């Protein structure tokens, strides 16, 4: 749903200008310094990027899913690590509180997330539980007016910087399944919470992950999301439904950038007496990438509109994540191929994107988890 087409066109155009004038020229620096430059972070806050999908009543821009998808596609046209910092606040960091939190929890945390004053992060994965999220072992045992958390969370995006964490933990140790899990808001300076060293990753330099360790970490009982035990797994799944659509839109944006890089390079470089783009075998790769990026854009926009209309898009969000993450992998591979030797060299953006996009097939649910969710929902609906 687009509430005001003119306003959204303006927002997308403003973001597009920011991406081209400020972010793309700083991509190499982001990768080299492994950090988003402070001045760019300040500009992102100023533009309201930390509160894109946070409702206006909490100081955000309150974008609908369709509007958010358009914006995410634009932001996807630069290094994904730029998006990672504020995307987590809008997405998996804040959505748990927004979807299932109490009014007090929303009022306490969300306005500061919307401005970027607070950075947030989502703690589901553990050393022994990733795809099988319901088997998580971190415990949260009630003790008076607190819960005592023990356990380790792994590969936590924004972990080194986050001020608050949405943490899924088992409040009922006798219930080993999804129903024993609750979600908590944990402030980073709570005694008993420590951060591991930053992980050394294949790509997406500038976006940081680390372990978050809870050792008798006492969290006020009022910080259980929604005020009720046993709802945390469902909260996490609902957050991921939205997150998967957002990531799919980012994949589309990256694919479109890679098509542009490929077209520009192949129109300039000559071989066998003609521009690469004149050679039919190269044209085939350009055409396949263009077609696949377009298919991704179309399906993400359709699923986003349906979500705004109130449909349950759990299956469609997984379809989008499955297709778009795999699609951008193929597009990145072709982008390297049409660049030839240059595509293997660090001074060309496609080399970096080739490594960056590999993560899309893994995080917020692997391709195989998306297949499982889609097929399971199909069977359930037909039975
Ligand atoms: N929205 C709301 N509720 C949902 C839901 C959704 N999208 N998906 C599942 N649920 C509910 C189910 O309805 C079920 O509720 P009931 O017990 O009341 O019937 C409950 O949650 C448990 O669901 P399910 O039985 O499907 O859980 P499983 O453990 O069998 O498997 C998968 C769930 C595999 C789909 C889940 O663990 C998953 O998505 N794993 C990947 C996790 C992930 O993406 N990790 C990435 C790290 S976060 S960046």
From TrEMBL:
InterPro entries for the chain: Acyl-CoA_DH_CS (IPR006089), Acyl-CoA_Oxase/DH_mid-dom (IPR006091), Acyl-CoA_Oxase/DH_mid-dom_sf (IPR046373), AcylCo_DH-like_C (IPR036250), AcylCo_DH/oxidase_C (IPR009075), AcylCoA_DH/ox_N (IPR013786), AcylCoA_DH/ox_N_sf (IPR037069), AcylCoA_DH/oxidase_NM_dom_sf (IPR009100)
Chain ranges of the Acyl-CoA dehydrogenase/oxidase C-terminal domain: 230-378
PROSITE patterns: ACYL_COA_DH_1 (PS00072), ACYL_COA_DH_2 (PS00073)
Cofactors: FAD
Pfam families xrefs: Acyl-CoA_dh_1, Acyl-CoA_dh_M, Acyl-CoA_dh_N
Acyl-CoA oxidase/dehydrogenase middle domain location: 121-217
Oxidoreductase is among the record's keywords: yes
Keyword entries, A-Z: FAD, Flavoprotein, Oxidoreductase
Domain (Acyl-CoA dehydrogenase/oxidase N-terminal): residue spans on this chain: 9-117
Family, per entry: Belongs to the acyl-CoA dehydrogenase family.
Name by which UniProt lists this protein: Acyl-CoA dehydrogenase family protein
Native source species: Vreelandella malpeensis
